[in-house]
Write a structure and sequence with these properties.
Strand content: 25-35%
Shape: globular
Structural class: alpha/beta
Helix content: 10-25%
Number of strands: 26
CATH class of the largest domain: Alpha Beta
Radius of gyration: 23 Å
Mean pLDDT: 92
CATH superfamily of the largest domain: FAD/NAD(P)-binding domain
Bound molecules: flavin-adenine dinucleotide
Length: 441
Amino acid sequence: MHTPEPTTLSNDARIVIIGAGQAGGWAAHTLRDEKFAGTITLIGEEPWPPHERPPLSKAVLAGVAPPESTHLFPLTEWAALDIDWRGHHKVLAIDRAARTVDLDDGNSVGWDRLILCTGGRARTLTIPGLEEASTTLRTIDDSIQLHHRLRPASRLLIVGGGWIGLEVAATARQLGVDVTVIETAPQLCARSLPAEAAQLLASLHKQNGVHILLGGGLCDAKKNADGSITAQLSITNQQKPTRKRTESVVNSSAGHAVTEQITADVIVAGIGMIPNDELARSAGVACANGVLVDQYCRTSDPSIFAAGDVAINSGGRATKPFRLESWQNAQQQGIAAARCALGAGTPYEPMPWFWSDQFGVNVQILGTTNDADQWIVRGSPQCITSETSVIFFYLRGGILRGVIGFNAGRDIRTARRLIEQSTVLDTDALANPSVSLKTLA
Ligand SMILES: Cc1cc2nc3c(=O)[nH]c(=O)nc-3n(C[C@H](O)[C@H](O)[C@H](O)COP(=O)(O)OP(=O)(O)OC[C@H]3O[C@@H](n4cnc5c(N)ncnc54)[C@H](O)[C@@H]3O)c2cc1C
């Protein structure tokens, strides 16, 4: 990959952004921040102005914050940017030769630069009988509808023990809902958490009354006359649900799969997302389960850029293509893509950072944890509450590569410096809560 030639787009140039989520909203704002005076058209399928999603599984789902709290910019600030915002409109096709996009209202919009911020959609359950009965959580509308279904003492089954599933579990428990989470892997958040951190998260949920079933899945379901759903679960490890939680054991064989029935009023699938890369693929832009971009956010077409959840990053220091599904990445890569579209970009090589809030505990993951050859813990890895703090440090050759902090926001900021300084650290000092991390930086 080579450094792009600086291009100065003239004041009558047209930039189209598809997708008005976090990445698209920040891309549009940045174009104006960078003094681009041409036409910016932002097309979003959802009716809402650019918005972020983290509150949708937290405060908005709990009903303590309105949907408008997710909007990225105050409406007056947004209006002052003079952006041709086409809300509630879907782009149906990209014509790269004519440099136009076709909208679902029959109109076409021309572009000199195109930025794809189409994000992803929630993966749904494919079990017969469950397509309609289960729900997912991705959009503002999903969050509002699910909130109305989470009544005290109602029974919620969450399929998938990843971040969305666990945040829904935490919010629902706080609303007095009876919550079971079933996860196929032998641990929670298997894609992003090492086992020891996942165990601590599981203990937090168990302390707060969430029933967690690991190594299991849904195999069948039927809707009952009262609207509830009876689901059949297959659990392959020793963690059988207790009798109190399940209505009956249908089939069992010691040490192998047991099939259990559970009745729920609501089923939420938290089983990941599918990147919305179909538009790019149909237009012949290179994709691999997402739109492929280099560190300048460029796709295989040099006048088309991509950012956020839809982008698969390669080039630069990356040893293999990767996607970062996080709030920070959507914002920072949206900003980077806008600058690159103007020819003013620098390589986008973020240090991965993700956060979550569950039961009053803030979890943050910084850097990489999966290539470590040693981990050190500061604090008790058995138990976490809103009053305590635990940090896991992941090192390779004595050099800090990543950190997972539970209620450790300030230390995470220092840890960023420790990761960046890339020197061999004193592991005894890392493990000792009475040694300030700042003294190591
Ligand atoms: C419920 C929830 C909670 C989360 N919580 C956290 C958290 O606590 N911490 C964290 O770091 N991350 C969190 N995330 C992840 C983070 O929100 C996402 O990574 C981020 O929203 C991605 O932004 P995006 O702009 O790339 O995509 P999206 O937010 O998916 O936006 C893409 C937009 O493009 C639109 N679109 C798609 N195709 C078209 C088309 N053809 N025409 C027009 N419009 C189109 C879509 O309708 C959508 O509005 C959470 C995500 C969810 C769903």
